[in-house]
Structures are given as C-alpha cells and as structure tokens.
Amino acid sequence: DLDMVFTRELFPRIRHHTICHKQVYFPIIFSQYDPHYWETTSTQINFSSFHLRDDIGYWRQYGFGMLGIYKSDLGSIGNWNVEINGWGKEDVEIYDKLVKSATLNVFRTIDTSLMHVFHTKECSPTLQDDQMKMCKGTKSITLGSQRTLVKHVLKTIQLNKI
C-alpha cells in the first residue's frame, strides 16, 4: 500500500510473527482521519514521529490489506484472486482463506510501526455491491472520530441556527 509509512521496527516484527508453514501476520494498523477534522492543526503533527492519537486516527480492526506471509504459504491457499476489479475485497478474501486453513495460524495484533496516511477515497460506481458497501464504510469511518464529528455537527447547527 503506497499510503503507508513505517518505522524500522516493522521488519523485525514481520520476521518474528511470520513463520513459514505455520503462521501469517496481519498487523492491525493505525489509520489517519481526514486532517480537516483533526482536533489539532496539521502543522503540529510530525509524520516521522508517529503520533498515534485518537484525535487524528483509529486502529483499523477490520483492515486486512497488510500481510506478512511466505510465498509458499500463499500458494498453498490458492494465491490472490486476480479476477477482482476495483477497490477492496481481495484482502478480505485472502484473510478468509487463511482463517479456514488447517495448517496456518493467523496472528493479529496492533502494530505501532505502521501508519496509513489519510487520502480521499473514491468509490467507483462500477464496483460490485459488496465492494461498494466496503468502500463507503471505509470512506465514512476515516472522516473523524465520533466525538470530533459531533463537535463539527454542533458547530454547524449553531452557525446555521438550526
């Protein structure tokens, strides 16, 4: 994923949690909210220092795009589905295959060495229904925390005297 930044601690962690013929690693990554909704100014954030705070992002519990796996283990479950077009679903499909594997354990944990940098998401109208649902869900959750969004809604209501 080109929108990921990471620290040097990532590589030993991948090597430790990825065990050939035994275990794959699906890190739970920190994903930034839209900076327009941050409770702090973007100039106060130094991306290289990995400020992982709940006002600028969230832990992506249901994100399966990052994966540590040996090529032979990937082959043993049938590889990536290259028939999927557009945004999403291929990572969820791989995760489902790995969870069902009789020989491979799926290891998930929060990984503080990975951060997904915010970018706008466009959900193409040509996506399949399940992909569109996933895309819109991800798009909406990356706006901001509930607390922050409530503050913006209340501010808008006050300004418009609704």
TrEMBL record:
GO molecular function list: glucuronosyl-N-acetylgalactosaminyl-proteoglycan 4-beta-N-acetylgalactosaminyltransferase activity
Subcellular localization, as worded in the UniProt entry: Golgi apparatus, Golgi stack membrane
EC number in record: 2.4.1.-
Keyword Cell division tagged: no
Membrane topology: Single-pass type II membrane protein
Keywords: Golgi apparatus, Membrane, Signal-anchor, Transferase, Transmembrane, Transmembrane helix
Name recorded for this polypeptide: Hexosyltransferase
Pfam families tied to this protein: CHGN (PF05679)
